[in-house]
Amino acid sequence: MNDNRNLPTQQSDQKTETARPEPALLPPVDVFEDGAGITLFADLPGVPKDKLNLQLEADSLTIEGEVALETPEGLESSHVEVRVPRYRRVFTLSRELDSDKAQAEFRNGVLKLRIPKAEHAQPRRIEVKVA
Amino acid sequence: MFRTMFPGDLFAELDRLQREVQQAFDIGPSIRGLGRGGYPALNIGNTPQSIELYAFAPGLDPNSIEVNLERGVLTISGQRDSDAPQDEKVTQHIGERFAGRFRRVVSLPDDDINPSGVSAQYRDGVLHVSVKRREAAKPRRIEVQ
């Protein structure tokens, strides 16, 4: 019985060790909510469109991006504020959001992501009919 | 109540804390260049031919960015408008992105740079300013005869 209990934890330990993520910066975000859904803005300067990776699952959102700068040959850094060429941020989504209908725009290093609420979760005004 | 659905908030706080701690230990490169952690973030490097600045300034209209070089002092300034929707029914859950006027100043070695050899390019939210160095300032290998 003891063996059975140990087995799954050992496996999960190994998993976390092999899948340790590389260091990444936390991009600043703004999140707005209105009746129809959620809008997220994220600052990812230096990330070209093809290096942006958005993963939308039923209950989580992962934003990842690699910075790609054009640097001349033989460049020596003298002052560095952006130390890691990578961004990553994970959010938990709530169930009323419909991630299948999400729309993303990416311009000048700013990601705009719109996740609408599922039809049944949207507020609606019920019309009163007079018979 | 909805706020708890964004656990990333806590990490953002830690991120800010880390930045502040780092600021306390870092020695600024010059009297004007101490603004670490401001907007936009700056990476500066140099090659034998040029000085290269990368300003991480996402979401700007390239025409609104001012880049000035005067007596070896390079100024990057502009304005970033807020993306907040102008609607009373909208709730803001997280607000970390910079909005407003910004200005960053870097002093470059005056005797080293060529003021007419400056170029600026805005791409993927990064402003890249390249300043050519003077011929005389380039490191030179002296031939021993």
Q: What would you note in describing this structure?
A:
The complex is a heterodimer of chains A (131) and B (145). Chain A is mostly beta strands. Chain A has a domain at 21-70 and 81-121: Immunoglobulin-like. Helices cover 13% and strands 37% of the residues of chain A. Chain A has one helix at residues 2-18; strands at 29-34, 37-43, 52-56, 60-66, 76-80, 86-92, 103-107, 110-116. The N and C termini of chain A lie far apart (68 Å). Chain B is mainly β. Chain B has a single domain, classed as Sandwich (Immunoglobulin-like), CATH 2.60.40. Chain B has a four-stranded antiparallel β-sheet, with no helix packed on it. A three-stranded antiparallel β-sheet of chain B has the order 3-4-6, with no helix packed on it. Classes of the chains: A mainly beta (131), B mainly beta (145). Chains A and B meet through strand 1, strand 2, strand 5 and strand 6 of A and helix 1, strand 1, strand 2, strand 5 and strand 8 of B. Strand 1 of chain A pairs antiparallel with strand 5 of chain B, so a sheet runs across the interface.
Features:
heterodimer; A: 131 residues; mainly beta; Immunoglobulin-like; three-stranded antiparallel sheet; disordered N terminus; B: 145 residues; four-stranded antiparallel sheet; 1 helix
Quick overview:
The complex is a heterodimer of chains A (131) and B (145). Helix content of chain A is 13%, strand content 37%.
Compute the number of structural domains of chain B. Answer: 1
**Ranges of chain B with pLDDT <50 over ≥5 residues?**
32-36
**Structural class based on helices, strands and sheet pairing of chain A:** mainly beta
What's the level 1 CATH class of the domain at 21-70 and 81-121 in chain A?
Mainly Beta
CATH topology of chain B: Immunoglobulin-like
Secondary-structure arrangement, i.e. CATH architecture of chain B: Sandwich
Q: Which stretches of chain A are poorly predicted, pLDDT < 50 over at least 5 residues?
A: 1-17
Task: State the major sheet of chain B.
Answer: 4 strands, antiparallel
Oligomer: heterodimer
CATH topology of the domain at 21-70 and 81-121 in chain A: Immunoglobulin-like
Order of helices and strands of chain B: HEEEEEEEE
Strand order of the largest sheet of chain A: 1-2-8-7
